[in-house]
Every structure is written in C-alpha cells, then in structure tokens.
Design goal:
Number of strands: 15
GO molecular function, one term: oxidoreductase activity
Strand content: 15-25%
Organism: Butyricimonas paravirosa
Number of helices: 15
Pfam family, one: AhpC-TSA
CATH class of the largest domain: Alpha Beta
InterPro entries: AhpC/TSA, Thioredoxin-like_sf, Thioredoxin_CS, Thioredoxin_domain, Thioredoxin_ResA/DsbE_sf
Protein name: Thiol-disulfide isomerase/thioredoxin
Oligomer: single chain
Shape: globular
Length: 454
C-alpha cells in the first residue's frame, strides 16, 4: 500500500511539474542585446526582462550576448542571467539544480572552445592546456558529468541522456571535421555514413533533440538524404516544399521528426514564391501544431514586409547579356534550347562566394545534361580585374559573365532584392523558377537532376 501511495505522489508531482513555465530573468548592468532562440531582446542599462517558455517539459536553446552559451531547462526551472558592465555573462548561482546544471554546461562549452584554440591558435591557451586534444576533452567531460550527477542525482532522469548523446555526436562531428556550414555534396566513407545514420534509431528517444551536437549531425545526415534519397521518399524535384516534409519521414515519429519538418520549411521560408504559397501552406498544416503556429506568424510578418515589393517578374524571358573574362559579349538568348541555371552574384558578396564550391560540385554531378550554368557578376567596371582574378583563381567553370548593363534594370527584371539570386530558365526561354534558395541547400540539384542528358 505504501508503494502504491508513493507512486501516486510521484505521479502527481510529475504531472504538476510538466507544463509549468520556465522563467529566465535577464538583468542588464549595461546596455545590451540578447539573442535567445529566434528572438532578440534589447535591454537598457539597469533594465530587467523576463522570458517565459511554456508548453513543453524540456528546452534546449542557445543564448548569446557577447558570448554564447547553451542552456538546458526543464519545466518549472528559473534562471537568472546577469549581463555585467565588463561584458561578462553570469548565470546566477542561486543553489538550484537549474543554475548548477547550466553552469556545468558553460564549463563543458569552455573546454570545447579551448580545443578549437589548441588547433588554431595554441599560443593563446594557458599552459595547463598545452597538447589538448579531442580524447582528453571527451575524457574530462565524462569525468565531470559523473561528478555532477553524484551531487545532483535527480538530473539523471533527462539531463544525463541528453549529455551522453551530446558526447557521442560531438566526438563524431570533431573526428570528421564537420563545422557549422552546409555539408551538401560532401562525400563520406561508407563506415562513417553508417555512424551518421545512427541519428535515426537514436531519434526514438525524444530527449535527444535537446543535444546540440546530435541536432547538428541530424542536419548533416538530412543534407545527405536530400541529395541521395536512398529510400526514394521524395517526389519530383519541383515539389520543393512537399519534399522537405517527406525527408522527415526517414526518422521515427516523435520530437526529432517534428523538428526536422519544421526546420526544413523554416530554412526556405524566405524564398517561398507567391505562386507556390498554396503548396507551402498545405505543408505547414502537416506540421506539429506548435511549429505550424510559429511558421504562420513568420509568414504574416514576411508578407507585411514584402507588401510593397514586386516579387513576380512581368518579363518571363530575361533579356540579359554580359562580358566574358576576355571581353566578349554573350547574350542569354544564345543558350535557348538548353536549361539555364542563372546565378547572380558579386565578388564582394560573402554568401555568394560561399556558394561557389557547392556550385562547382553540382556542375560536376550534372555534367553531360542539357544545362548551361551561367554566373552573372554584378561587379562594377572598376572591379573588373578583381572579378577576373577570382574566376581564374577559383577555376570557376560554366559561363562566367560580368553584367555590362544597369544593375537597377537587372533587379527590376528579376525582382532581385539581394544576392546570391538563383533562377532557372527552361529550353523555351521561360523563367520557370525565380529566387531559389542557394545551391548549398540541394533543392536546385533536385530540380536539375531530372534534366535529360544532351
């Protein structure tokens, strides 16, 4: 009878804790801004701001203000974050498990940062960290976690699982040199891919979604699945939005699958075309309610921001021309009869330059198909030599042109609001896709892969 009563009490306590809001108190001793999740908070000196999280029993989020720290929070937690005048960020130690847990996470993150320094700028490390390597970092974190859990055994319930998952995938990411950028088209040995694929069975436990390294590995593996699609779950390449939701079906039902479907759509939200809005909205309806609500709010804001901006070009066939590195004039119409991938870019544009290696790899994979890869630089005449130098040094393939007409006319013609700007023109000369996500997303490859060989 006592055991039954004990179980009932524990169950009631669990139900009481589940769904209780998480509260984060921001205390600004200086003027500052804080990035937390998708939100930005601007604070004046002396201001206090509360952030409340509701609806879930666990949260894993990044907080940034001069420095970044990962926070793991459970229902009912309360944490005070102090932004000091000396630009330091403090997680106030109030004796709670929440404060102890998140300060432990900061200690682990600091050790990971020191490993980066050990590889890049070892002279900046204190003497005790000389020779720091991945093995030493992983061993230290395991020892620290065991010590922490002895002091706070209640955190074995969820936090230990999240951290064991974090250690596993942190090591895997570091061993394979995977950083924060996209890994689309990156090739990995079969045995390494098999290790990456463990993200699928591990997804059966919803708690793994709160591990930053696990989620990074999920993103890497989804990049691979988007290109290779071994289970043939995706439809035709032009079903962009639908395919992004279908990719999540590689994973078992639960928190990980829900987050993948949401993240995939959120990543391409900016490029949603007006004529494809209906298809996108249908995909949003298939998301978990909490994610669908977030995307609908973002769409409303995006629509308001674009209210007075033209998004669909009236001229279906862009009459464009440019000069080659040798000064020869080339008209886009000369490629009629072939599919054209048009990339509008510039040497001074960081995101444009980041797309160059992905574009080169895609060209290699699609070699022999009836496609012309046309890169149109909007560099000014004064920067012509800089453009020529980059084209030659990076051995950029395809058709390399520099716009000789007015940039304002180009922007008007293709409704360009920023670069890089990607568009696809069919053999009849029709602009069938305009304002696509970068090549690094893999979506353009999925469309062009269906173009037949010449």
């Amino acid at each position: 009878m006592k055991k039954v009563l004990f179980c009932i009490v524990c169950l009631n306590m669990a139900l009481l804790c589940f769904g209780q809001p998480v509260k984060i108190k921001l205390v600004a001793e200086r003027e500052a801004f804080v990035l937390f999740g998708d939100e930005r908070y601007d604070l004046k000196k002396g201001e206090t701001r509360w952030i409340t999280l509701e609806g879930e029993n666990m949260y894993g989020k990044r907080l940034w203000s001069n420095e970044e720290c990962f926070l793991f929070l459970e229902a009912g937690d309360s944490l005070e974050v102090v932004l000091h005048e000396n630009n330091e960020l403090e997680l106030k130690d109030d004796g709670s498990v929440c404060a102890a847990r998140n300060n432990w996470l900061r200690k682990a993150d600091l050790l990971k940062q020191r490993l980066k320094y050990a590889r890049l700028i070892p002279q900046m490390l204190p003497k005790e960290y000389e020779g720091l390597n991945l093995e030493r970092v992983c061993d230290s974190m395991n020892v620290w976690l065991a010590t922490y859990l002895k002091e706070y055994p209640a955190d074995r319930k969820n936090f230990e699982k999240v951290m064991r998952t974090e250690f596993k995938y942190y090591r895997l990411l570091e061993e394979n040199g995977i950083k924060s950028s996209k890994t689309t088209f990156q090739e990995f040995p079969g045995e390494v891919l098999a290790q990456f694929a463990e993200v699928i069975p591990d997804a059966k436990d919803d708690r793994v979604v709160y591990s930053p390294s696990y989620w990074r590995m999920v993103e890497v593996y989804v990049d691979y699945l988007r290109i290779e699609d071994p289970g043939k779950l995706q439809g035709k390449g032009d079903r962009i939005y639908e395919n992004e939701v279908k990719l999540a079906k590689y994973f078992p039902k639960g928190a990980v699958r829900d987050k993948i479907a949401y993240t995939n759509l959120d990543n391409i939200l900016y490029w949603v075309r007006p004529d494809g809005r209906g298809d996108f909205d249908k995909c949003v309806e298939r998301l978990a309610p909490r994610y669908a609500g977030v995307l609908r709010e973002k769409l409303i804001k995006q629509d308001a921001d674009r209210k007075d901006r033209k998004l669909v070009p009236e001229n279906l066939y862009p009459s464009l021309s440019g000069e080659t590195v040798n000064g020869e004039r080339v008209d886009l119409s000369s490629f009629k009869g072939a599919w054209i991938l048009l990339d509008v870019w510039a040497t001074w544009c960081g995101p444009c330059c980041n797309e160059i290696p992905f574009l080169a790899e895609m060209e290699k994979r699609l070699q022999g198909r009836n496609i012309e890869f046309v890169s149109l630089s909007v560099d000014k005449l004064a920067d012509r030599e800089k453009w020529v130098k980059m084209v030659r040094e990076k051995e950029m393939k395809g058709v390399q042109l520099r716009l000789t007409g007015k940039k304002s006319e180009l922007n008007e013609m293709l409704c360009i609001s920023g670069i890089p700007h990607f568009a696809i023109i069919n053999p009849a000369g029709e602009l069938v896709w305009n304002g696509l996500p970068g090549v690094s997303y893999g979506l353009i490859y999925r469309i062009l892969k269906e173009v037949p060989v010449r």
